[in-house]
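ok trying again, last paste got cut off:
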Amino acid sequence: MSEQVIDLKKRRFLTNATSVVGAVGVGFVLVPFLSSWMPSARAKAAGAPVDVDIAKLDPGQLVRVLWRKKPVWIFRRDAQTLANLETLDSDLSDPHSTGNSKSNQPTYITENYRSIKAEVAVIVGVCTHLGCSPTYRPELGAADLGGDSWKGGFYCPCHGSKFDLAGRVYAGAPAPTNLVVPPYHFVSNSLIRIGIDPQSS
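nice, full thing came through this time. structure:
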């Protein structure tokens, strides 16, 4: 075998070995670089904000999104629903969220509607009793929820807690407080960002 053939074999071996070592080196450089683009463990635990487009949300319609592994309800209330909310104070445990429910909502939302804009509600869909997820019952006068006195709301099938369409708990229910309103704000007229308090940003 000639020296020239041997040299070619050595050259191919060295070229391939160098390519492999170079590829491994590039991998070691890229992994930390790409990892820096990922949210930190602290950011993941805090819960990244969630954007929701409500441009096509009709009155009475409810959409669900996940934020911090919890369901969040976004729904549009019509004028009649808003008027009905004004009549329920005597039926509710904490209608103005001044008691134990005060910490369940940001300070910048309205008192009765518990929202930034009266017609759009944003509420964490977890019962404050034992963490079940209530069902959406917007129909008026539901016989199994009180007949004519039921103005629409949420019913928790686990232990019977009832909430109105502002997330306020009815008196006598096992749930001790109103449903939680998460921090949120309107990025535009049709886009809500859940998870960021506008007063702290």
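cool. The chain has a mean pLDDT of 85. Strands lie at 50-53, 62-67, 70-76, 120-124, 135-137, 153-155, 162-164, 184-188, 191-194.
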